[in-house]
Design goal:
The complex is a heterodimer. By secondary structure, chain A is mostly helical. Chain A contains nine helices and no strands. Chain B is 50% helix and 13% strand. In chain B, the strands form three sheets. In chain B, strands 1-2-3 form a three-stranded antiparallel β-sheet. In chain B, strands 6-7-8 form a three-stranded antiparallel β-sheet. A two-stranded antiparallel sheet of chain B has the order 4-5.
Chain lengths: 126, 361
């Protein structure tokens, strides 16, 4: 037996957790930072996290918001790395460095952010 | 949970050590725990949805039904949240009476948590001693509020009933009895060699993991985190409150923090009784429209009520974040990992004082 028979049933319950008021606010915040729809982020979270982890997302996000510098918070890296566990610390640091490099090379902030969003999504989905 | 090995060890949902149903799915290599996942959904109440749209007078009773063990703090935080929205200040005597009842509730909750732990590690004698002592605390709660649980004691602007001089004397003598008995029980716990084998350096929670998961209450304070909402509460500050912190981060530290907090609670109640002057116990007031995010310190840790009211005192929006949520999450993702024996799974889990009723509010 390679997997639990009831594993698929948990998807509906995970969605109910993510639909509650505080969870929805956190998911919307990160979806806006990544430039994707919240439904897409919900799907990623349901596939990657267990129920208890999802239940604790608002508290974890409160803790994560107190960390990181201004650039990291702009890109949503503390939330992705510390609260949501969707990226490793190294991946977060790499995206930050690339973003700063682009700004130094004279690329506008808007373009640099959209490129960083694409990189972050690729890392999350890989 | 992705399978990594061929040995899966489900614990629960019905287990002799659990007060409430939940399933811990563990992946083990022999006795060694590789990963763990807590599965919920057996007792979901949907109480936040039931509260929405109802007047505060109804929500007040629903709030304390979130949890049967720590019902007073739900009443406490909900009422203080609507008071803050409406600019209502409780009378001085009522503020002290609230602290007394809240601390009695914390004492019974901590004694029940430590009973559960002792029962889990098969020290039934100490467990029964603690459960018996809890009855003394429950009697005091009944003496003041008229009920053992779901007391509905705290109302906007004050409390429901006063404490007479005779009852205050009975309370003081009960506190002396609790202090004397508990000192004896703590000595048994501290010096028991078999208790130490099952508790010391078992289920270690590092300070970093506790901060990342926003662990709260005795679970966090046993890992060296100075986090107690009572430190910022005006009545507790007037009583000179300071949190109890230990550094070990293991099962032993979590149980000892709770024991020490019971002694601290008896001290706070004595201070409140001494500081309390004669006066009114109800100030009254009208609930107004507004929104707030209000935190209080439940026995298990930080309790958050986020709510929005209208001009008629109805609760338009409400979200409750109970302390068991972060504590169970950190337990399954940090404390249970690398446990050397499958027998430690239940003791580590119970040492974090999980409340499934709170989590599945």
């Amino acid at each position: 037996m390679n997997r639990y028979l009831y594993e698929k049933d948990l998807r509906q319950m995970k969605l109910i957790i993510l639909e509650s008021r505080r969870h929805d606010a956190v998911v919307q915040e990160l979806a806006a930072t990544l430039g994707i729809k919240r439904q897409q982020l919900r799907k990623i979270l349901i596939e990657s996290s267990d129920m208890m982890f999802l239940e604790n997302l608002p508290a974890r996000s409160d803790a994560a918001r107190e960390t990181g510098d201004e650039t990291e918070r702009l890109l949503g890296i503390p939330l992705l790395v510390q609260a949501f566990h969707l990226l490793s610390r190294e991946e977060g640091a790499r995206v930050r460095e690339q973003y700063l490099q682009r700004i130094q090379n004279g690329i506008t902030q808007e373009v640099a952010i959209s490129k960083a969003q694409i990189e972050l999504l690729e890392m999350i989905r890989s | 949970m992705k399978k990594t090995v061929d040995i899966s060890l489900p614990v629960g949902p019905m287990h002799p050590c659990f007060k409430e149903p939940c399933r811990i799915k563990c992946e083990t290599r022999g006795e060694y725990v590789l990963s763990a996942e807590v599965e919920l959904g057996y007792v979901k109440k949907g109480i936040e949805r039931i509260m929405r749209g109802r007047p505060w007078q109804e929500v007040m009773f629903l709030a304390e039904r979130v949890c049967g063990i720590c019902s007073v703090i739900h009443n406490f935080v909900f009422i203080e949240a609507v008071e803050n929205i409406s600019g209502i200040v409780p009378t001085e005597r009522a503020a002290f009476l609230r602290v007394i009842v809240n601390e009695l509730d914390r004492m019974q909750s901590h004694l029940l948590a430590n009973y559960s732990y002792c029962y889990t590690i098969e020290h039934e004698t100490l467990a029964m001693y603690l459960l018996n002592l809890r009855e003394t605390v429950m009697d005091q709660l009944e003496l003041i509020t008229g009920a053992r649980v779901t007391c509905a004691y705290i109302v906007p602007g004050g409390v429901r009933s006063d404490l007479s001089t005779d009852d205050a004397e009975k309370l003081k003598s009960a506190l002396d009895h609790i202090d004397a008995e508990l000192s004896r029980f703590v000595k048994i716990f501290e010096t028991g060699p078999l208790i130490a084998l099952r508790s010391k350096e078992i289920g270690i929670l590092t300070r970093e993991a506790a901060i990342e998961s926003h662990a709260v209450g005795p679970t966090a304070r046993a890992s060296g985190i100075d986090n107690d909402q009572r430190s910022t509460h005006p009545t507790y500050r007037a009583l000179g409150f300071s949190p109890i912190i230990r550094q070990e981060g293991d099962n032993y530290a979590r149980i000892m923090v709770r024991f020490e907090e019971v002694f601290q609670s008896t001290g706070l109640i004595r201070s409140a009784l001494a500081a309390m002057k004669e006066g009114p116990i109800r100030g009254g007031g009208v609930i107004k429209a507004g929104s707030i995010s209000y935190r209080g310190e439940a026995p298990r840790g930080e309790l958050l009520y986020e709510l929005k009211t209208d001009d008629y005192g109805r609760i338009l929006e409400i979200a409750i974040q109970t302390p068991s949520i972060p504590n169970i999450q950190v337990c399954s993702h940090a404390m249970l990992i690398d446990a050397q024996s499958a027998a430690d799974i239940t003791s580590i889990f119970i040492s974090s004082d999980p409340c499934i009723a709170c989590t599945e509010r």
